[in-house]
Write a structure and sequence with these properties.
Layout: H1 2-13, E1 20-26, E2 29-35, E3 44-47, H2 50-64, H3 86-90, H4 102-106, H5 111-123, H6 139-153, H7 157-166, E4 175-177, E5 194-196, E6 201-203, H8 210-214, E7 224-226, H9 228-242, H10 253-259, E8 294-298, E9 302-307, E10 312-318, H11 330-346
Antiparallel strand pairs: 1-2, 1-10, 3-7, 4-7, 5-6, 8-9, 9-10
Helix pairs in contact: 1-11, 2-6, 2-7
């Protein structure tokens, strides 16, 4: 186990990140490591982990309640000419570009108008390719899904997530959004994520993603915060439902497992519905996770991977953006970390 401590220390020394928490679950056993500047600052900006851990799970719940269907079209709910089904937004085959900087466009607008204007921009986007004919990871997909959730449910994402997904798991206080007008937790409990060049300040306790920031801190694509214990618990719940060990009132096993399968592999997509899968060759998850594994990466330096075949979870939370957005050292660190952790906790001769 000392090897993992040493590896995280190396990451800090080499400025891969300034703080990190890691956890592994394997066959009923769990281990957690923390390398934090201050023991009380333990909540990380989870960034795009919001997509699978929040937005996708909410959509499972809405489908279960027969409020929405995967084959519904975006134009069934919004006044738009965009031809795209919900399932195509979920597996990034919608046709949208990967990213659009709406922050620079909307920052000068009064706060009360920004979110509505952002939705109007999204609904006016041009698709770069025909829906379902290609695959391109896009924040726009999940920004739209966030708006869709709020329209269908009549509630904001935070409220729905807390009650329907986190409530049954007793996690409502430890995985949360930080609305700009009413933060869930004291910002001093959060790990700083970046010296932001656009906001001209150290970002701590408010969302790093600027498009989410312009929405008030709550989005379908980003905005979630959590500590290692809570993220591990939520990932364990997903795995345990998948394995048939527990039930969740809003996440029935048949529907959840459908979200955890790859879709549209014929177009080269490795995406499940909101969840990524290990890429062939050099995956950020390393070499031991099976093809059925699901996970996701976050821009701030976060990640999780769940393997149903090995009954295993690995979560890594860091703040790699503290050294700038162009700090890409995490790309080499992640696979080596996953391989080392698995070999150290399961055994040197572990072959997968």
């Amino acid at each position: 186990m000392n090897k993992i401590d040493e590896l995280l220390e190396i990451g800090i020394k080499n400025k891969v990140f300034s703080a990190a928490s890691a956890g592994v679950y394997y066959n009923g056993n769990k281990f957690i490591w923390n390398k934090l500047d201050d023991v009380y600052k333990n909540y990380f900006d989870l960034a795009s982990l919001t997509k699978p851990l929040c937005t996708s799970l909410i959509l499972v719940s809405l489908i279960n309640d027969i409020q929405i269907n995967l084959d519904d079209n975006l134009c069934d709910y919004f006044d738009t000419k965009i031809k795209c089904k919900i399932k195509n937004l979920l597996n990034h085959s919608s046709g949208f570009v990967s990213y659009r900087n709406y922050y620079n466009i909307l920052y000068s607008n009064p706060i009360i108008f920004r979110k509505d204007k952002l939705l109007s921009y999204l609904l006016s986007e041009q698709q770069e390719y025909e829906c379902g004919q290609n695959s391109c990871y896009s924040d726009l997909d999940f920004m739209l899904l966030g708006f869709l959730i709020e329209k269908v449910s009549g509630r904001n994402i935070q409220s729905y997530f807390e009650e329907k997904i986190l409530g049954p798991l007793n996690l409502s206080d430890d995985i949360f959004f930080q609305p700009l007008d009413r933060p869930h937790h004291d910002i001093n409990l959060c790990i700083p994520s970046e010296n932001c060049p656009n906001r001209n300040k150290l970002i701590q306790g408010e969302v790093n993603d600027e498009n989410c920031w312009i929405m008030g801190g709550i989005g379908g694509h980003a905005g979630l915060f959590g500590d290692i214990s809570s993220v591990m618990t939520l990932a364990e719940a997903i795995l345990s439902i998948w394995k048939g060990r527990i039930e969740h009132p809003s996440l029935p096993r048949p529907l959840l497992t459908h979200f955890l399968k790859r879709h549209d592999e014929k177009i080269g997509s490795g995406w499940a519905y909101g969840f990524d899968t290990p890429s062939k060759g050099k995956s950020s998850s390393g070499k031991y996770f099976s093809e059925r594994s699901v996970g996701h990466l976050g821009f701030t330096g976060t990640s999780f991977w769940i393997d149903p075949e090995k009954d295993m979870i690995v979560v890594l939370l860091t703040n790699r953006t503290i050294y700038g957005r162009d700090n890409h050292k995490i790309k080499e660190f992640r696979p080596y970390f996953h391989d080392t952790l698995i070999e150290e906790t399961i055994g040197k001769n572990f072959k997968g």
